Amino acid sequence: MTTTTTLAQVYREHPIHLRDIIPLDFNSIRSVPDSHVWPISDDFSSDHQLMVPIIDLKDPNAVKLAGHACETWGVFQVINHGIHLNLLEEVESEARRLFSLPTQTKMKALREPAGATGYGLARISPFFPKYMWHEGFTIMDSPTDHARALWPTDNARFCDVIERYQKQMKVLAEKLTDLILESLAIFREDLNWDVGSPSTALQLNSYPPCPNPNRAMGLAPHTDTSFLTILYQGSISGLQIFKQGAGWISMLPVTGALVVNVGDLLHILTNARFPSVLHRAVLNQEGSHRVSVAYFYGLPIECSVSPLLKLLDSGENPRYRPVTVKEYVDIKSKYFEEPLTSIRI
Asked: Which residues form the Fe2OG dioxygenase domain (predicted)?
């Protein structure tokens, strides 16, 4: 009998030191410590004249629009996506309830060094010389065990909201995947993805008020390992994406909209036609507590990903060799800066 490898098991092979897991006690901080001071940069501001595409899933041209947005931006916002605004507000409320707990309580659900779920700093922390003004809570599959650690007698509401959100996000992610594949004139039947369940994760992000938001970074620039990511950013801005030729651009929140961005696996599949968009989180200047919720949708761990030959133009060669999802996660866990370089042909 074969056992299916999970995303959590893959991350267990790449333990992280506790110093890169334990967040600051943000409630007791009156100034930004040197460990969290980033160099002053004039690129923290961005060009608000450029607007990331907003796509209505009920638009008859949604397929074409999504494909164009993926190719020219690597990201778009989506409306009429089927996720009720009430559920979005509920999941934000539960995230705020979690991050508002006393530090000693949140530490009861601290992510283990070889763990993939629970409370802690972003997994990308070890790859940067300074820490980020961020705390997160990662969920894969059921949130029950960690929720019980946080709320021994009052965890039912949190678990119910999170589980409903996960189910609806999975449905939406599959719908968006089919939409994007259709824009490329390919279908799931063309791909060998029937080797297990999709690898998914839900990430609750907290960016507490900062004494000097110009000197700290919410989340450092990075791309997502996923096939695609769906982000609910609430009503407080902070997300920025990098567009070649334009620089950093703020993703201004649209009520009820969700941000969809291309991940590394989709970038590989399209032979770099769709950019895996570089993005970051800057801190709110008004001192508001910003919360966001990211759903990472990936392919089965044992799935092999490579540029689709039918997408290549005449005379164009594949840029990347075939790689399994597990192998790519391993590579990015070691070589965060240039993971795609290591599989380039």
From this structure: 198-299
The percentage of residues in the chain with a pLDDT greater than 90, rounded to a whole number, is 79
Q: What is the pTM of this model?
A: 0.95
What is the C-alpha radius of gyration for the chain, rounded to an integer number of angstroms?
19
Task: Give pLDDT tens digits for 210-265.
Answer: 999 999 999 999 999 999 999 999 999 999 999 988 889 999 899 999 999 999 99
Confirm if 21 and 120 have CB atoms less than 8 A apart: yes
- Which fold does the domain 7-343 belong to in CATH? Jelly Rolls (2.60.120)
Q: Please state, rounded to an integer, the average pLDDT across all residues of the chain.
A: 92
Q: Which residues contact 340 (CB under 8 A, 6 or more apart)?
A: 264, 267, 268, 276, 320
262 Cβ contact partners less than 8 Å away, ≥ 6 residues apart: 70, 74, 75, 228, 274, 275, 276, 277
265 in helix, strand or coil?
A: helix
Amino acid at 177: T
CA distance 132 to 45: 18
**From 164, 290, 319, 321, the catalytic residue:** 290
Report d(CA 152, CA 297) in Å as an integer: 30
Q: Where are the alpha helices (DSSP H) in 184-312?
A: 264-269
Q: How many residues does the chain have?
A: 345
Distance CA 284, CA 288 (A): 6
Among the listed residues 219, 170, 178, 205, the one whose alpha carbon sits nearest the alpha carbon of residue 98: 205
Q: Which helix (H) or strand (E) holds 330?
A: helix 325-334
Is 290 one of the catalytic residues? Answer: yes
Give residue for tokens 């100034």.
Answer: 31
**Cβ partners under 8 Å of residue 171, min gap 6:** 82
Cα separation, 210 vs 177, whole angstroms: 37
